[in-house]
Amino acid sequence: MATAELRKFAVGVCALVCAAGCATDDRPVGVAAVGTQEGAIHSWSTYHWARTSNPFSVITQDSVTSAWDAYFATTVSDWSVSAVLDLVAAAGVDTSTARKQCTAVVGKIRVCNASYGKNGWLGLAQVWITDGHITKGTAKMNDTYFALAKYNTPAWKNHVMCQEVGHAIGLGHTSEDGSSQLTCMDYATDPTGSQHPNLHDYDQLGLIYGHLDTSTTVAAAAATSAASADEENRGQLIGKHGRTEHWMRPLPGGGELHSFVVLAD
Question: CATH 3.40.50.300: does it fit domain 38-263?
Answer without folding.
Answer: no
